[in-house]
Design brief:
3-stranded antiparallel beta sheet; alpha+beta; 10 strands; 5-stranded mixed beta sheet; Antioxidant, Horf6, Chain A, domain 2; 2 domains; Glutaredoxin
Length: about 220
């Protein structure tokens, strides 16, 4: 297993998402099942732990918002499917929150290793809090890592998805702290002629390379 971990390079932004077939709380699932839709694949350290429980409830709370954006949600840890099922039932019974998305039971660590979810500096057995945003072509578009001690921010995950989808739809970039409705960044010009022309196009420009517009 250690040799396998050394041989596999985790995916980077722009790479094809590593293919997998895995047992989940909702049956066997393949990555290709999600082709044509956006997917958030996220890992958590362990079932029946406090921070992970808060995160799963938070992911459940934004599930409808994700669905509105055409985004599917898939969790993962190295616990068994029986443990996952028991935990999901516990969260519904004790916290009053139903978990609507599947959770991969990655006991053999195949998916965890292929996505680089095991960081020995944190733990040799538990996955760190990873978030992989995978687009409809099954390309990795964004990756976020959190340590075991820090729960994720759901508002930022939604903002990131909105930014990526806006970029794809309009061919623009998004500035720091951007949120839907804010001005977007127009791609910088590639020639001097384009730089001079863009100043006449009605954008809000600070300089030739820094122009923004409303969508």
């Amino acid at each position: 297993m250690e040799e396998l971990q050394e041989e596999i390079r985790p995916p980077r932004i722009g790479d094809p998402a590593p293919a997998f077939e895995a047992v989940t709380t909702q049956g066997t699932i393949k990555l290709e099942d999600y082709k044509g839709s956006w997917l958030i694949l996220f890992s958590h350290p362990a079932d029946f732990t406090p921070v992970c429980t808060t995160e799963f409830m938070a992911f459940a709370e934004i599930y409808e918002e994700l669905q509105k954006r055409g985004v599917e949600l898939l969790g993962l840890s190295v616990d068994s499917v029986s443990s996952h099922i028991a935990w999901v039932r516990n969260v519904e019974e004790k916290m009053g929150v139903k978990i609507p998305f599947p959770i991969i039971a990655d006991l053999n660590k195949e998916v965890s290793l292929s996505y680089g979810m095991l960081h020995e500096g944190e733990s040799k057995t538990a996955t760190v809090r990873c978030v992989f945003v995978i687009d409809p072509k099954q390309v990795v578009r964004a990756i976020i890592y959190y340590p075991l001690t820090t729960g994720r921010n759901m508002a930022e995950i939604l903002r990131l998805l909105d930014a990526l989808q806006t970029t794809d739809q309009h061919g623009v970039a998004t500035p720091a702290n951007w949120k839907p409705g804010d001005m977007v960044v127009v791609p910088p010009p590639n020639t001097q002629e384009m730089a001079e022309e863009r100043l006449k196009q009605g954008y809000e420009c600070k300089d030739w390379y820094f122009c923004m517009k409303k969508l």
